[in-house]
Model the fold of this input.
Amino acid sequence: MAKLKSVYFCSSCGYESPKWMGKCPACGEWSTFVEELVRKDTASKQEDTRSFGEVRSEPMTLSEIKADELPRIDMNDGELNRVLGGGLVPASVVLIGGEPGIGKSTLVLQTILKLSGVKSLYVSGEESAGQLKLRADRIGIQNDDCLIVCETNLDEIFKHVRKVSPQLLVIDSVQTIYSEVLESSPGSISQVRECASLLLKFAKQSGTPVLLIGHITKEGSIAGPKILEHMVDAVLQFEGDQHYMYRILRGVKNRFGSTAELAIYEMNRSGLREVSNPSELLLTQNHDGLSGVAIAAAVEGVRPFLIETQALVSTAAYGTPQRSATGFDIRRMNMLLAVLEKRAGFKLAQKDVFLNIAGGLRVSDPGMDLAVISAVLSSSLDMTIENETCLCGEVGLSGEIRPVHRIEQRIQEAEKLGFSRILVPFNNLKGFNKKMKIDIQQVKRVSDAFRLLFS
Done:
Protein backbone atom coordinates (compact mmCIF):
# COMPACT_ATOMS: atom_id res chain seq x y z
CA MET A 1 0.00 0.00 0.00
CA ALA A 2 1.14 3.54 -0.69
CA LYS A 3 1.89 5.64 2.34
CA LEU A 4 0.95 9.30 2.52
CA LYS A 5 3.01 11.68 4.57
CA SER A 6 3.38 15.40 4.93
CA VAL A 7 6.78 16.86 4.08
CA TYR A 8 8.00 20.45 4.08
CA PHE A 9 10.14 21.73 1.22
CA CYS A 10 12.13 24.95 0.93
CA SER A 11 10.83 26.85 -2.09
CA SER A 12 14.26 28.39 -2.63
CA CYS A 13 16.62 25.42 -2.61
CA GLY A 14 14.36 22.35 -2.29
CA TYR A 15 15.60 21.30 1.16
CA GLU A 16 13.32 18.63 2.68
CA SER A 17 12.27 18.68 6.32
CA PRO A 18 9.75 16.61 8.31
CA LYS A 19 8.53 19.73 10.13
CA TRP A 20 8.12 23.41 9.41
CA MET A 21 11.09 25.68 10.13
CA GLY A 22 11.34 29.43 9.97
CA LYS A 23 14.84 29.49 8.49
CA CYS A 24 16.17 27.02 5.93
CA PRO A 25 19.39 25.42 7.23
CA ALA A 26 20.63 24.83 3.66
CA CYS A 27 20.27 28.25 1.98
CA GLY A 28 19.54 30.50 4.98
CA GLU A 29 16.28 31.93 3.59
CA TRP A 30 13.41 32.77 5.92
CA SER A 31 9.74 31.68 5.62
CA THR A 32 10.30 29.58 2.50
CA PHE A 33 8.99 26.19 3.69
CA VAL A 34 5.77 24.91 2.12
CA GLU A 35 3.87 21.74 3.00
CA GLU A 36 3.32 19.01 0.42
CA LEU A 37 1.80 15.55 0.50
CA VAL A 38 4.19 12.88 -0.77
CA ARG A 39 3.24 9.30 -1.56
CA LYS A 40 5.95 6.71 -1.04
CA ASP A 41 5.14 3.68 -3.17
CA THR A 42 7.54 0.85 -2.46
CA ALA A 43 5.70 -1.81 -4.44
CA SER A 44 5.89 -0.08 -7.83
CA LYS A 45 9.14 1.42 -9.00
CA GLN A 46 7.99 1.92 -12.61
CA GLU A 47 11.31 0.85 -14.05
CA ASP A 48 9.73 0.32 -17.46
CA THR A 49 9.38 4.08 -17.98
CA ARG A 50 12.57 5.14 -16.25
CA SER A 51 15.17 2.99 -17.96
CA PHE A 52 16.19 4.00 -21.48
CA GLY A 53 19.34 2.02 -21.91
CA GLU A 54 21.83 -0.19 -20.17
CA VAL A 55 24.36 2.38 -19.07
CA ARG A 56 26.88 1.25 -16.47
CA SER A 57 29.60 3.53 -15.22
CA GLU A 58 33.05 2.36 -14.18
CA PRO A 59 35.88 4.36 -12.63
CA MET A 60 38.48 5.52 -15.16
CA THR A 61 41.63 7.58 -15.10
CA LEU A 62 41.87 10.91 -16.92
CA SER A 63 44.14 9.38 -19.55
CA GLU A 64 41.47 6.78 -20.40
CA ILE A 65 38.74 9.37 -20.93
CA LYS A 66 38.28 10.54 -24.52
CA ALA A 67 37.23 14.20 -24.70
CA ASP A 68 36.10 14.39 -28.30
CA GLU A 69 34.23 17.43 -29.53
CA LEU A 70 30.52 16.69 -29.36
CA PRO A 71 28.63 17.05 -32.65
CA ARG A 72 26.00 19.73 -32.34
CA ILE A 73 22.56 19.98 -33.89
CA ASP A 74 22.18 23.02 -36.12
CA MET A 75 18.98 24.79 -35.01
CA ASN A 76 18.72 26.77 -38.29
CA ASP A 77 18.72 29.91 -36.15
CA GLY A 78 21.96 31.87 -36.03
CA GLU A 79 20.98 33.78 -32.91
CA LEU A 80 19.98 30.67 -30.95
CA ASN A 81 23.04 28.74 -32.13
CA ARG A 82 25.32 31.48 -30.82
CA VAL A 83 23.67 31.53 -27.37
CA LEU A 84 23.87 27.73 -27.16
CA GLY A 85 27.57 27.85 -28.04
CA GLY A 86 27.34 26.66 -31.64
CA GLY A 87 24.24 24.48 -31.64
CA LEU A 88 22.34 22.02 -29.47
CA VAL A 89 24.50 19.32 -27.91
CA PRO A 90 23.07 15.76 -27.93
CA ALA A 91 22.02 14.40 -24.51
CA SER A 92 21.80 17.94 -23.13
CA VAL A 93 18.93 19.46 -21.15
CA VAL A 94 18.20 23.13 -21.86
CA LEU A 95 15.83 25.20 -19.71
CA ILE A 96 14.22 28.30 -21.25
CA GLY A 97 12.53 30.69 -18.83
CA GLY A 98 10.72 33.98 -19.23
CA GLU A 99 7.69 36.04 -18.31
CA PRO A 100 4.23 34.90 -19.45
CA GLY A 101 3.42 36.02 -22.98
CA ILE A 102 7.00 36.97 -23.82
CA GLY A 103 7.22 34.39 -26.63
CA LYS A 104 8.92 31.29 -25.17
CA SER A 105 6.55 28.80 -26.81
CA THR A 106 6.62 30.71 -30.08
CA LEU A 107 10.42 30.66 -30.16
CA VAL A 108 10.65 26.94 -29.43
CA LEU A 109 7.85 25.96 -31.83
CA GLN A 110 9.21 27.94 -34.78
CA THR A 111 12.71 26.58 -34.06
CA ILE A 112 11.68 22.93 -34.20
CA LEU A 113 9.49 23.60 -37.25
CA LYS A 114 12.63 24.81 -39.05
CA LEU A 115 14.47 21.56 -38.27
CA SER A 116 13.91 19.56 -41.41
CA GLY A 117 15.05 15.96 -41.17
CA VAL A 118 15.06 15.97 -37.35
CA LYS A 119 12.16 14.11 -35.77
CA SER A 120 10.94 16.10 -32.77
CA LEU A 121 8.21 15.53 -30.20
CA TYR A 122 6.51 18.63 -28.77
CA VAL A 123 4.74 17.85 -25.50
CA SER A 124 2.28 20.56 -24.53
CA GLY A 125 0.87 20.62 -21.02
CA GLU A 126 -0.70 24.07 -21.28
CA GLU A 127 -2.24 24.35 -24.75
CA SER A 128 -4.44 22.16 -26.86
CA ALA A 129 -3.45 20.76 -30.23
CA GLY A 130 -5.78 23.24 -31.93
CA GLN A 131 -4.04 26.18 -30.28
CA LEU A 132 -0.65 24.89 -31.41
CA LYS A 133 -2.03 24.46 -34.93
CA LEU A 134 -3.17 28.09 -35.00
CA ARG A 135 0.27 29.24 -33.83
CA ALA A 136 2.01 27.11 -36.45
CA ASP A 137 -0.26 28.56 -39.16
CA ARG A 138 0.64 32.05 -37.99
CA ILE A 139 4.34 31.20 -38.15
CA GLY A 140 3.81 29.82 -41.64
CA ILE A 141 6.16 26.81 -41.53
CA GLN A 142 5.09 23.23 -42.27
CA ASN A 143 7.15 20.28 -41.04
CA ASP A 144 5.87 16.71 -40.90
CA ASP A 145 8.84 15.68 -38.73
CA CYS A 146 7.37 17.65 -35.79
CA LEU A 147 4.90 15.59 -33.76
CA ILE A 148 2.51 17.17 -31.24
CA VAL A 149 1.07 15.53 -28.15
CA CYS A 150 -0.90 17.12 -25.31
CA GLU A 151 -0.06 15.26 -22.10
CA THR A 152 0.92 16.08 -18.51
CA ASN A 153 1.52 12.60 -17.09
CA LEU A 154 5.24 11.88 -17.28
CA ASP A 155 4.73 8.12 -17.52
CA GLU A 156 2.45 8.57 -20.55
CA ILE A 157 4.98 10.95 -22.09
CA PHE A 158 7.69 8.29 -21.82
CA LYS A 159 5.35 5.80 -23.53
CA HIS A 160 5.00 8.22 -26.46
CA VAL A 161 8.77 8.67 -26.49
CA ARG A 162 9.34 4.91 -26.72
CA LYS A 163 6.83 4.67 -29.55
CA VAL A 164 8.07 7.66 -31.57
CA SER A 165 11.82 7.61 -30.74
CA PRO A 166 12.30 11.37 -31.33
CA GLN A 167 15.63 13.06 -31.93
CA LEU A 168 14.50 16.09 -29.91
CA LEU A 169 12.04 16.31 -27.02
CA VAL A 170 10.29 19.55 -25.99
CA ILE A 171 8.38 19.90 -22.70
CA ASP A 172 6.05 22.92 -22.46
CA SER A 173 6.16 23.48 -19.58
CA VAL A 174 7.99 21.57 -16.84
CA GLN A 175 5.68 23.06 -14.17
CA THR A 176 2.66 21.28 -15.71
CA ILE A 177 4.20 17.79 -15.76
CA TYR A 178 3.57 15.40 -12.89
CA SER A 179 4.64 11.92 -11.87
CA GLU A 180 2.27 9.43 -10.29
CA VAL A 181 4.97 8.43 -7.84
CA LEU A 182 4.29 11.63 -5.88
CA GLU A 183 0.97 12.74 -4.49
CA SER A 184 1.66 16.48 -4.68
CA SER A 185 0.11 18.65 -7.38
CA PRO A 186 1.89 19.60 -10.64
CA GLY A 187 4.19 22.56 -10.25
CA SER A 188 5.08 21.79 -6.65
CA ILE A 189 8.70 21.63 -5.60
CA SER A 190 8.78 17.86 -5.26
CA GLN A 191 7.05 17.30 -8.63
CA VAL A 192 9.34 19.69 -10.52
CA ARG A 193 12.41 18.11 -8.97
CA GLU A 194 11.26 14.53 -9.61
CA CYS A 195 10.16 15.17 -13.21
CA ALA A 196 13.34 17.09 -14.02
CA SER A 197 15.51 14.30 -12.64
CA LEU A 198 13.69 11.67 -14.75
CA LEU A 199 13.94 13.80 -17.89
CA LEU A 200 17.64 14.35 -17.18
CA LYS A 201 18.14 10.59 -16.81
CA PHE A 202 16.31 10.01 -20.09
CA ALA A 203 18.47 12.56 -21.92
CA LYS A 204 21.77 11.17 -20.65
CA GLN A 205 20.89 7.52 -21.28
CA SER A 206 19.25 7.91 -24.69
CA GLY A 207 21.37 10.77 -26.05
CA THR A 208 18.23 12.75 -26.93
CA PRO A 209 18.39 16.49 -26.19
CA VAL A 210 15.51 17.91 -24.13
CA LEU A 211 14.20 21.46 -24.23
CA LEU A 212 12.30 22.50 -21.10
CA ILE A 213 10.14 25.62 -20.96
CA GLY A 214 9.81 27.01 -17.44
CA HIS A 215 7.70 29.61 -15.68
CA ILE A 216 9.20 32.41 -13.65
CA THR A 217 8.06 33.94 -10.37
CA LYS A 218 7.12 37.58 -9.79
CA GLU A 219 10.69 38.18 -8.58
CA GLY A 220 11.98 37.12 -12.01
CA SER A 221 13.57 33.79 -11.02
CA ILE A 222 12.56 30.46 -12.53
CA ALA A 223 9.75 28.82 -10.55
CA GLY A 224 10.52 25.68 -8.62
CA PRO A 225 13.52 24.69 -6.54
CA LYS A 226 16.92 26.16 -7.33
CA ILE A 227 18.17 22.61 -7.89
CA LEU A 228 16.28 22.67 -11.21
CA GLU A 229 18.79 25.15 -12.63
CA HIS A 230 21.69 23.10 -11.22
CA MET A 231 20.47 19.88 -12.84
CA VAL A 232 20.10 21.14 -16.42
CA ASP A 233 23.03 21.80 -18.76
CA ALA A 234 21.96 25.26 -19.92
CA VAL A 235 19.61 27.95 -18.64
CA LEU A 236 18.41 30.55 -21.15
CA GLN A 237 16.50 33.64 -20.04
CA PHE A 238 14.04 35.11 -22.54
CA GLU A 239 13.28 38.70 -21.60
CA GLY A 240 11.92 41.93 -22.98
CA ASP A 241 9.12 44.43 -22.54
CA GLN A 242 5.77 43.26 -23.89
CA HIS A 243 5.06 46.80 -25.08
CA TYR A 244 8.12 46.72 -27.33
CA MET A 245 8.83 44.43 -30.24
CA TYR A 246 12.37 43.41 -29.27
CA ARG A 247 13.21 40.31 -27.24
CA ILE A 248 16.57 39.23 -25.80
CA LEU A 249 17.65 35.64 -25.17
CA ARG A 250 20.50 35.50 -22.64
CA GLY A 251 22.60 32.56 -21.52
CA VAL A 252 22.51 32.38 -17.72
CA LYS A 253 24.23 28.99 -17.52
CA ASN A 254 25.84 26.92 -20.25
CA ARG A 255 28.08 23.89 -19.75
CA PHE A 256 28.90 23.76 -23.46
CA GLY A 257 29.54 27.42 -24.24
CA SER A 258 29.88 30.96 -22.96
CA THR A 259 27.23 32.68 -20.85
CA ALA A 260 28.25 36.08 -22.24
CA GLU A 261 26.26 35.63 -25.45
CA LEU A 262 22.84 37.02 -26.22
CA ALA A 263 20.40 36.89 -29.12
CA ILE A 264 18.04 39.65 -30.22
CA TYR A 265 14.68 38.92 -31.85
CA GLU A 266 11.92 41.09 -33.20
CA MET A 267 8.35 40.02 -32.46
CA ASN A 268 5.94 40.35 -35.37
CA ARG A 269 2.72 38.72 -36.55
CA SER A 270 4.51 35.74 -38.09
CA GLY A 271 6.61 34.91 -35.03
CA LEU A 272 10.09 35.97 -33.98
CA ARG A 273 12.54 37.34 -36.53
CA GLU A 274 16.30 37.27 -36.01
CA VAL A 275 17.94 40.67 -35.69
CA SER A 276 21.37 40.22 -37.20
CA ASN A 277 22.34 43.92 -37.01
CA PRO A 278 20.61 45.46 -33.98
CA SER A 279 22.50 48.76 -34.20
CA GLU A 280 20.58 49.98 -37.25
CA LEU A 281 17.24 49.17 -35.61
CA LEU A 282 18.07 50.63 -32.19
CA LEU A 283 19.15 54.01 -33.58
CA THR A 284 16.57 56.57 -34.62
CA GLN A 285 17.57 59.16 -37.20
CA ASN A 286 15.18 61.94 -36.13
CA HIS A 287 16.83 63.44 -33.03
CA ASP A 288 18.44 66.40 -34.80
CA GLY A 289 18.55 69.38 -32.45
CA LEU A 290 17.17 67.39 -29.50
CA SER A 291 18.95 67.45 -26.17
CA GLY A 292 19.28 64.52 -23.77
CA VAL A 293 20.25 61.96 -26.44
CA ALA A 294 23.62 60.19 -26.53
CA ILE A 295 24.73 57.19 -28.59
CA ALA A 296 26.58 54.50 -26.64
CA ALA A 297 28.87 51.87 -28.14
CA ALA A 298 27.90 48.90 -25.96
CA VAL A 299 28.95 45.27 -25.92
CA GLU A 300 26.85 42.37 -24.67
CA GLY A 301 28.88 39.21 -24.59
CA VAL A 302 31.09 39.41 -27.68
CA ARG A 303 28.54 41.32 -29.73
CA PRO A 304 28.93 45.09 -30.17
CA PHE A 305 26.03 47.35 -31.00
CA LEU A 306 25.19 51.04 -30.81
CA ILE A 307 22.23 52.00 -28.68
CA GLU A 308 20.45 55.26 -28.04
CA THR A 309 20.48 56.58 -24.46
CA GLN A 310 17.78 59.13 -23.61
CA ALA A 311 17.66 61.33 -20.51
CA LEU A 312 15.28 63.99 -19.23
CA VAL A 313 16.21 66.38 -16.41
CA SER A 314 13.61 68.79 -15.01
CA THR A 315 12.95 70.72 -11.84
CA ALA A 316 11.34 68.65 -9.07
CA ALA A 317 7.70 69.72 -8.94
CA TYR A 318 6.91 68.51 -5.42
CA GLY A 319 10.22 69.13 -3.69
CA THR A 320 11.32 65.50 -3.64
CA PRO A 321 13.32 64.64 -6.77
CA GLN A 322 12.43 61.50 -8.69
CA ARG A 323 14.91 59.01 -10.11
CA SER A 324 13.67 56.61 -12.76
CA ALA A 325 15.55 54.34 -15.17
CA THR A 326 14.20 52.02 -17.86
CA GLY A 327 16.62 49.41 -19.17
CA PHE A 328 19.45 50.56 -16.87
CA ASP A 329 20.37 49.79 -13.26
CA ILE A 330 18.81 52.50 -11.09
CA ARG A 331 21.50 52.13 -8.43
CA ARG A 332 24.26 52.69 -10.96
CA MET A 333 22.44 55.71 -12.31
CA ASN A 334 22.29 57.21 -8.79
CA MET A 335 26.03 56.61 -8.45
CA LEU A 336 26.70 58.38 -11.76
CA LEU A 337 24.55 61.32 -10.68
CA ALA A 338 26.59 61.57 -7.48
CA VAL A 339 29.79 61.60 -9.54
CA LEU A 340 28.36 64.38 -11.71
CA GLU A 341 27.54 66.47 -8.65
CA LYS A 342 30.73 65.82 -6.70
CA ARG A 343 33.40 65.66 -9.43
CA ALA A 344 31.94 67.81 -12.20
CA GLY A 345 30.12 70.41 -10.09
CA PHE A 346 26.64 70.05 -11.61
CA LYS A 347 23.86 70.41 -9.04
CA LEU A 348 21.19 67.78 -9.63
CA ALA A 349 19.93 67.35 -6.06
CA GLN A 350 16.68 69.23 -6.78
CA LYS A 351 16.18 67.81 -10.27
CA ASP A 352 14.03 64.97 -11.55
CA VAL A 353 16.12 62.59 -13.65
CA PHE A 354 14.54 60.08 -16.04
CA LEU A 355 16.67 57.67 -18.08
CA ASN A 356 15.56 55.40 -20.89
CA ILE A 357 17.39 52.87 -23.06
CA ALA A 358 15.73 52.99 -26.48
CA GLY A 359 14.08 49.89 -27.87
CA GLY A 360 13.01 48.41 -24.54
CA LEU A 361 16.34 46.62 -24.06
CA ARG A 362 18.06 46.14 -20.73
CA VAL A 363 21.82 46.63 -20.95
CA SER A 364 24.31 46.00 -18.15
CA ASP A 365 27.54 46.99 -19.91
CA PRO A 366 29.56 49.42 -17.71
CA GLY A 367 30.91 50.95 -20.90
CA MET A 368 27.60 52.87 -21.19
CA ASP A 369 28.42 55.08 -18.19
CA LEU A 370 29.91 57.88 -20.27
CA ALA A 371 26.89 57.99 -22.58
CA VAL A 372 24.50 58.03 -19.61
CA ILE A 373 26.10 61.00 -17.86
CA SER A 374 26.50 62.81 -21.20
CA ALA A 375 22.79 62.40 -21.95
CA VAL A 376 21.88 63.61 -18.45
CA LEU A 377 24.12 66.66 -18.78
CA SER A 378 22.84 67.36 -22.30
CA SER A 379 19.27 67.48 -21.00
CA SER A 380 20.25 69.56 -17.96
CA LEU A 381 22.08 72.17 -20.06
CA ASP A 382 19.60 71.82 -22.96
CA MET A 383 22.53 71.41 -25.34
CA THR A 384 22.63 68.79 -28.09
CA ILE A 385 25.33 66.26 -28.79
CA GLU A 386 26.44 65.93 -32.41
CA ASN A 387 24.59 63.21 -34.28
CA GLU A 388 27.74 61.58 -35.61
CA THR A 389 29.35 61.23 -32.16
CA CYS A 390 29.21 58.10 -30.01
CA LEU A 391 30.74 57.35 -26.64
CA CYS A 392 32.02 54.46 -24.58
CA GLY A 393 33.73 54.35 -21.21
CA GLU A 394 33.25 53.31 -17.60
CA VAL A 395 33.03 56.13 -15.06
CA GLY A 396 34.83 55.71 -11.74
CA LEU A 397 33.89 57.28 -8.42
CA SER A 398 36.68 59.84 -8.71
CA GLY A 399 35.41 61.02 -12.09
CA GLU A 400 37.97 59.18 -14.21
CA ILE A 401 37.08 57.36 -17.42
CA ARG A 402 38.17 53.76 -17.02
CA PRO A 403 39.08 51.43 -19.94
CA VAL A 404 36.48 49.02 -21.33
CA HIS A 405 36.86 45.64 -22.99
CA ARG A 406 36.57 44.94 -26.73
CA ILE A 407 37.31 48.55 -27.65
CA GLU A 408 38.31 47.57 -31.19
CA GLN A 409 34.93 46.00 -31.90
CA ARG A 410 33.13 49.06 -30.54
CA ILE A 411 35.12 51.39 -32.80
CA GLN A 412 34.59 49.20 -35.87
CA GLU A 413 30.84 49.05 -35.24
CA ALA A 414 30.67 52.85 -34.97
CA GLU A 415 32.66 53.30 -38.17
CA LYS A 416 30.51 50.76 -40.02
CA LEU A 417 27.37 52.75 -39.19
CA GLY A 418 28.83 56.03 -40.44
CA PHE A 419 29.82 57.80 -37.21
CA SER A 420 32.60 60.36 -37.61
CA ARG A 421 33.78 60.61 -33.98
CA ILE A 422 33.98 58.36 -30.95
CA LEU A 423 35.13 59.19 -27.41
CA VAL A 424 37.05 56.37 -25.74
CA PRO A 425 38.95 56.05 -22.42
CA PHE A 426 42.57 57.17 -22.29
CA ASN A 427 45.18 54.41 -22.74
CA ASN A 428 42.47 52.02 -23.95
CA LEU A 429 44.04 51.74 -27.41
CA LYS A 430 47.21 49.89 -26.49
CA GLY A 431 48.05 47.46 -29.27
CA PHE A 432 45.42 48.99 -31.56
CA ASN A 433 47.33 50.07 -34.67
CA LYS A 434 44.64 49.72 -37.30
CA LYS A 435 43.96 52.86 -39.34
CA MET A 436 40.34 53.94 -39.08
CA LYS A 437 38.38 56.64 -40.88
CA ILE A 438 36.54 57.54 -37.68
CA ASP A 439 38.07 60.23 -35.42
CA ILE A 440 39.07 58.56 -32.14
CA GLN A 441 39.38 60.96 -29.21
CA GLN A 442 40.72 59.79 -25.85
CA VAL A 443 39.47 61.28 -22.57
CA LYS A 444 40.81 60.86 -19.04
CA ARG A 445 38.05 62.46 -16.94
CA VAL A 446 34.42 63.33 -17.30
CA SER A 447 35.35 67.02 -17.48
CA ASP A 448 37.49 66.31 -20.56
CA ALA A 449 34.60 64.54 -22.24
CA PHE A 450 32.17 67.38 -21.47
CA ARG A 451 34.64 69.90 -22.86
CA LEU A 452 34.80 68.01 -26.16
CA LEU A 453 31.04 67.49 -26.36
CA PHE A 454 29.68 70.88 -25.33
CA SER A 455 32.44 73.39 -26.09
